[in-house]
Design a protein that fits this description.
The chain is an all-alpha fold. The chain has two domains: 54 residues, no CATH class; 117 residues, no CATH class. 58% of the residues lie in helices and 0% in strands. It has six helices and no strands. The two termini are 30 Å apart. One of its GO terms (biological process) is poly-hydroxybutyrate biosynthetic process.
Length: 179
């Protein structure tokens, strides 16, 4: 649903519950309960508008999985240290790869894309500065994959949902989207 149709639907709902008031007539400082008959507001209409806005995905379900993962990670100092060590190791690998490339040495790339990931298949991704950009992204992706592994007490389904959400966010930031 586009923004215009959402605005139209909300305007129609407003007109239904308060026919004598338009959106421009609302005084934001006044208590809205005086102008609206809140009891007549159709709950199903509001839920429908929310479903259109979120694509039918429950906002609670999305946030609950991520919150469960974050709370378990926050209570796991050993896991936090493990992730800090992995971040440091990944940064060292990328830095070493960059230093080798700057000195003209041939180097083996420390991170490789998955077999089904064809975003970096073009030969230009093997040349500086694109190879460093690619390696940095793959290092971050590697870290997040390990960060979202299941841990003691975490529901495996919540771990998988969080991994999926973060993978989608990472895919948005992939260098192949900007090059």
């Amino acid at each position: 649903m586009t923004d215009m149709t959402i605005e139209t639907a909300l305007s129609e709902e407003l007109h239904r519950i308060a026919p004598d008031i338009g959106l421009e007539d609302i005084d934001r400082t006044q208590d809205l309960r005086e102008k609206f008959d809140i009891d007549s507001m159709d709950f199903l209409t509001l839920v429908t508008a929310l479903a259109y806005a979120t694509g039918g995905v429950s906002p609670y379900s999305v946030s609950q999985a991520r919150n469960d993962w974050a709370l378990h990670l926050g209570r796991s100092p050993g896991r936090q240290l493990e992730l800090a060590e992995r971040a440091q190791a990944n940064a060292l690998k990328v830095t070493s790869c960059a230093a080798s490339a700057l000195t003209g040495q041939t180097t083996v790339e420390p991170f490789t894309a998955r077999a089904h990931d064809h975003r970096f298949a073009h030969a230009a991704w093997a040349n500086p500065p694109f190879n460093l950009w690619k390696q940095g992204f793959l290092a971050v992706q590697d870290w997040w994959e390990h960060a979202t592994d299941t841990m003691r007490g975490l529901d495996p389904q919540d771990a998988e949902r969080t991994r999926f959400q973060l993978r989608q966010m990472l895919d948005l930031m992939s260098p192949s989207n900007f090059a």
